[in-house]
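Protocol step 4 of 5: obtain the predicted structure for the target chain.
Materials: sequence only (see below). No template structures provided, no constraints applied. The aim of this step is simply to have a reference model before the mutagenesis design in step 5. Sequence pasted as it appears in the construct record:
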Amino acid sequence: MRRIAKVDGNQRAIVAYLRAHGCSVVSLATVGGGVPDLRVGRNRVTVLMEVKLPSEVSRKSDTAAMQASFRATWRGGPVVVVTTPEGAMAALTAHVREVAP
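Step 4 output (structure tokens):
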């Protein structure tokens, strides 16, 4: 039986910040299988975000292995690891600029 998805303590702040800055945000935290926590869209660009607490970025676990496997086989847009609201916006903005006409 699958456990209830753990949501990192900083995820709500990141979601609120992104939405306040005009982003669409969908939580994918319950999907499992290494799928990142958030699907974020802005200016017709979608980025998948894995939310981590700063203290857990380098933590090794079975979940981290599944997340690495997902990133290695994902054929869509970028997957980024974020720890702060400002870092999430910076990562998104960098990718929005990459695809701007």
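Step 4 remarks: The longest helix spans residues 85-99. The helical segments are 11-20, 62-73, 85-99.
Proceed to step 5.
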